[in-house]
């Protein structure tokens, strides 16, 4: 994979820093406006994070720890995290007062009443809208579970065992053809989309990039461990119902079976995973680190916030396109 094309000043500066053309002189100036859904800033951050996953053919692997690159990453992360804290404040104020962090997490998910993207996909979405949805999520789903693997070495005991068990499932439970990343790639290919890793990174929205980046923010920084666990629990717990609806939308559109397979797999698997992630990963972790409860809930709220933003954005985009067409 090659470095993505820049789409603004920040991603351009990052590209320059990574090509070592400007090392030592490179700094980024962030816009005054929020960066949470800013495509340019989120693409820059995604690019820097990618150095810790699969990297780029045209970037020296040593760039991952280049002081300039590390500094730029820190500057963007600082703003990103600040905005996430601000945006999740109201949601966090509504966290039910329970002893059991798993109950808090699962209740947080259940009390969501945001736009029902999955209901729309089930009943009304056109083929083009379904493809748009699959493309929008592709960058994050083609490396599904990889961010969470960085959490494992930072855990101990029961939480570590439970997360490893979950990851085993996500990584295909011993069967390469069941690797969830592969199932998603097959879904993309079956609707005629490009199934290569990050093929659409230059096309998806800033919000979709932020949804991928937030996982790396928590996974690639050890200080993000607790938030990463909370995020993961919500990610699993908010998958079962939408996956069922999306699978039925795919059937309504009479798309090939391979498109629904990914979602059907998650209807079954995530019913178990949500319990394991909340009760067996976050539960023992918070029992051992009571001071980390707030951080776990913050990560959870971040997942819900970005999910809501993304849902709202897609529905608005399709409504606007339908208006133009009519
Ligand atoms: Fe999965
Ligand atoms: Fe899962």
Explain the overall architecture:
- There is one protein chain.
- The protein is mainly alpha-helical and 326 residues long.
- The chain folds into 2 domains: 9-85; 97-325, Heme oxygenase-like (Heme Oxygenase, Chain A, Up-down Bundle), CATH 1.20.910.10.
- The chain is 66% helix and 0% strand.
- It contains 14 helices and no strands.
- α4 runs parallel beside α14 and α10 packs antiparallel against α14 (293-325).
- The chain is globular, with a radius of gyration of 19 Å.
- It starts with 8 loop residues before the first helix and ends with a helix.
- One fe (ii) ion (FE2) binds at residues 170, 236, 269-270, 273.
- The site of one fe (ii) ion (FE2) has 4 residues, from loops.
List the helices and strands and how they pair.
Layout: H1 9-18, H2 39-50, H3 67-93, H4 101-110, H5 117-123, H6 127-141, H7 146-149, H8 157-170, H9 180-190, H10 206-219, H11 225-237, H12 240-252, H13 257-288, H14 293-325
Helix pairs in contact: 1-2, 2-3, 2-10, 3-14, 4-11, 4-13, 4-14, 5-12, 6-9, 6-10, 8-13, 9-13, 10-11, 10-14, 11-13, 11-14, 12-13
The structure holds fe (ii) ion (2 copies).
One fe (ii) ion (FE2) binds at residues 170, 236, 269-270, 273.
In a nutshell, what does this entry contain?
The protein is mostly helical and 326 residues long. The protein has 14 helices and no strands. Helix 4 crosses helix 11, helix 10 packs antiparallel against helix 14 and helix 12 runs antiparallel to helix 13.
